[in-house]
Amino acid sequence: SPQLGALLHRSLRVYQIWGANTEVGKTVFSTILCGVTTKYRPDEKTTFLKPVSTGPLQEADDRHIPRFLPGVHSETLYQFDLPVSPHLAAHVSQKNTPSDREILSRISEFASYHASPSPGWLFIETAGGVHSPGPSGTTQADLYRPLRLPAVLIGDAKLGGISQTISAFESLKARGYDVELILLFHNDTYQNHSYLTSYFQDHHSIPVKTAPLPPPLSPNPQSDTGNMQAYYTGTLPSLSSIPSLLSSSHANRISRLQSMPTTASQTIWYPFTQHQHLTPDKITVIDSAKDSHFDTFVPSSPGPVLRPSFDGSASWWTQGLGHGNQHLSLAAAYAAGRYGHVMFAEAIHEPALALAETLLSGMGNQRLKRVFYSDNGSTGVEVAVKMALRASRGRYGWEGKEKAGVIGLKGSYHGDTIGAMDCSEPGVYNEKVEGECGWLRAQRGRGEGSLGRWGRFLIWREGREEGRGGGMRRDPLFQRTLVKVVRASPELFAGKHGHTHGSNDELDWSGLPVVYDEVFTGLYRLGRFSAASFLGVDPDISVHAKLLTGGLLPLSATLASESIFRSFLSDDKSEALLHGHSYTAHAVGCQVALESLRQLMKMERNGEWDWAVSTKRNKGGDQSHGVASFPQPDRRVVGSRVWSVWSSELVEWLSWEKGVEGVWALGTVLAIHMGRAGGDSAGYKSNAARGLQAALLRGSSSDGGVHSRVLGNVLYLMAGQTTTEETVRRVERLVRGGLGDGD
């Protein structure tokens, strides 16, 4: 079945009707909405859909509406006889319970079938309250979220209904729904409508419309029908403004999406973008995102104007638990409500402390004892450099005039702030930034240059496999050897007055402080909590960001050993680590990161990646064209096998494909090195991967598209940790198609 995404048609105005609770009048208001839209423009077709209904068939909602509005097509997709919550009704009925995806697919197909070039209406009514479970047990607020339909909320006019209505609204809002209208009965006894009208208009600018209470149910069916017919006839005129309101909202939404690229091209200064060549048609409008996909605007489409596009860069490597993750959203709301932001110097709050404890425990590195918070990976790197410089100068007695710098790897990348750029080989990103760095090329069995040349330089491991200037490269054997040689050679770095040995503590750093930049590679991006386990040697300092908050908020943590920490201890305040920013360890970010790590660790414990770990391509450590051999990890590593979500069949096929120079896959990452054509060169300035990138963006009608980023001649793709096997295989089909193999 086609890849699902948000549902928005140019001509068909679709609204989802939610109830603040059960028995609030959803079906009555659905009938009113169908009635006023039918009278609004008689030539426009109005349709009603009840995806899931429970209770006797003769009392089903889709039978109520045609009784009073014969011209309205009404339909139910799944009917269960027992008048209870859908999950229980489905279980008791012993029928095949429809999956969430099946329900969403049928809704999408229903909407497409009833959409036409002429304007029309479709109202989709939910069952029970906002969090009433669907047949599978998923609450409706989460079940229907991938469609992200604009919402009409039916408020509760009964006692306690004010709280129910506001709670229902906040649940929808927290999940990214746009509530366009509030409807409820006018109840003079409780006056809920009076309070809620002011509340929603004053605080949220949402209109509230009321209708009189319907007549009591008559024991005589014929009388009851007559009473309700009279009720609708008398009520519809007072609510005749609703269609114009909803129609304008629909038109304004599409108009805004249509104009955003032009407005953005005149307003926004984009990162990593040469604006000389950026025209509005090259700007992707993202209406929303859910799980592993963006919902992107298709301006030329006469029908659905949104299509699902796989987030191929994991939103610059940050995404892991899926866009719109309700657990992370709730964690953020909780911390925002409890703390907002509180300053951190010489203070502590639970999210920051709990996150630090979780990070240190999860790393399994006995060297690491301290956590320093900053705002992003690049800043975290600069913090690490400050730590390492201070520790080295203190031990070796380097004088102020003596130069100190970095030993790094060619093609490495550690961020875009000046200090982080100075830790990378001069290239496109930092060639105008002065630096004092030496660079070693990682090659099997040998390194280019020697450590002796760089007497007083810090060691740096290329932790970000991606390396914006250098594509995606790695050689764990070289890096492992480099660390061991440096730690065994402190005499290379001692100054005139320094000594070569630290304390007798085996966890003290030796030679030079070893820094691992795990901003990109850590926290399960490559399949393990820490990428250090691939090398079999632990760092003295490590930097983490990206997946730390599951893709929701910026936050970074620099972890350090106790011996590094002690380098800053002094009676002189100026000897402290004088680094920080206003939002250091912001509580919202720390709470989200804590929830993110808990979710990821739970997924590992529950074996949720077993479909990727247990396949034939991941049985061994050395795989043809794919993952190279790694040192055996120690006993602390859970799930220590080397694995990839990308199939060995795809990697094998790519390795033989014309125009592909190389390919590797590890964890959730796939990197395709395209060959150079004509005078094109490798590296960031290359355009060799642009053709494949464009083909992936075009995609197909069944599999959607792929929004990806390229690094010169390298196109990389990465899944999230919650990306399903089905989704990965869809993307693999698109990759094959993009390179000319449609099979």
From TrEMBL:
Protein location: Mitochondrion
GO MF term set: adenosylmethionine-8-amino-7-oxononanoate transaminase activity; ATP binding; dethiobiotin synthase activity; magnesium ion binding; pyridoxal phosphate binding
Keyword tags: Aminotransferase, Pyridoxal phosphate, Transferase
SUPFAM superfamilies according to UniProt: P-loop containing nucleoside triphosphate hydrolases, PLP-dependent transferases
Tree of life domain: Eukaryota
One GO term of the biological process aspect: biotin biosynthetic process
GO CC terms of this entry: mitochondrion
Main location: mitochondrion
HAMAP family attached to this UniProt entry: BioD
Record protein name field: Pyridoxal phosphate-dependent transferase
Species per Swiss-Prot/TrEMBL record: Apiosordaria backusii
Lineage per the UniProt record: Eukaryota, Fungi, Dikarya, Ascomycota, Pezizomycotina
